[in-house]
Amino acid sequence: MDLSKRQEQIIAIVRENGPITGEKIAELLNFTRATLRPDLTVLTLSGILDARPRVGYFYVGNQTASVFGELLRKSLVRDYKSVPIVVHEQTTAYDATVTMFLEDVGTLFVVRDGGILCGVLSRKDLLKLAIGQTTLKEVPISIAMTRMPNIYTVKPETSIYDAGKLLIHAQIDSLPVVIPSEVASGQWEVVGRVTKTTITRLFVELGESKQV
Ligand code: ADP
């Protein structure tokens, strides 16, 4: 919602001085109470200000935005993650390409025995290999993947909000969801994935006001 300059001024006054009467706000702005009435109505109806008889106006903020933010912070990766599509580090570039098509994903997570995360392979990593005219049926993906410890990951208890922020900050499409490995200490086991689609799906659900 776009606010006028005068509405912004009213909000600033109420934030600082509230609860405050309409007459007092008008006085501070050098307007008549009648001139301000439409602005005060808009601000009250939109939930930014609230008014109590004999008390005056006070600031309640943009509650819609804060409810939305809280929902995203309370929604956890554990409840929205999808199944990770993993390949072994010795998989050839050709087989990895086929897996991407068959599984309909844009990113593969590369693992060692025990499901230990050791790399991430994106579409462009494979394209780079193709441009280099490597023999795709022979070359292992380990030469093209991004390796640990340079991989951004999230935990099941990470919030969807933090996962989304990380996707944007790192300019990537996909995050492995990891837990500490039980078989190899200091290593991470892949248990899921969060992608831009995961975030978009939640966004659409919220837009449809479905229970989340
Ligand atoms: P694409 O390369 O198909 O556009 P991305 O933008 O996700 O897909 O990948 C860009 C680069 O970032 C690739 O080199 C990929 O290996 C790497 N990458 C992808 N996901 C991650 C991640 N979670 N952590 C670190 N690097 C990643």
From TrEMBL:
Superkingdom in the source lineage: Bacteria
InterPro entries xref list: CBS_dom (IPR000644), CBS_dom_sf (IPR046342), CBS_domain-containing (IPR051462), HTH_11 (IPR013196), UCP026546_HTH-CBS (IPR016842), WH-like_DNA-bd_sf (IPR036388), WH_DNA-bd_sf (IPR036390)
Pfam families with a match to the protein in the record: CBS, HTH_11
Residues annotated as signal peptide: none
Keywords: CBS domain, Repeat
SUPFAM superfamilies assigned: CBS-domain pair, Winged helix' DNA-binding domain
Occurrences of domain CBS (ranges): 80-136, 145-209
PANTHER family cross-referenced by the UniProt entry: CBS DOMAIN-CONTAINING PROTEIN CBSX2, CHLOROPLASTIC, TRANSCRIPTIONAL REPRESSOR CCPN
Protein name stated in the entry: Transcriptional regulator
Originating organism: Ferroacidibacillus organovorans
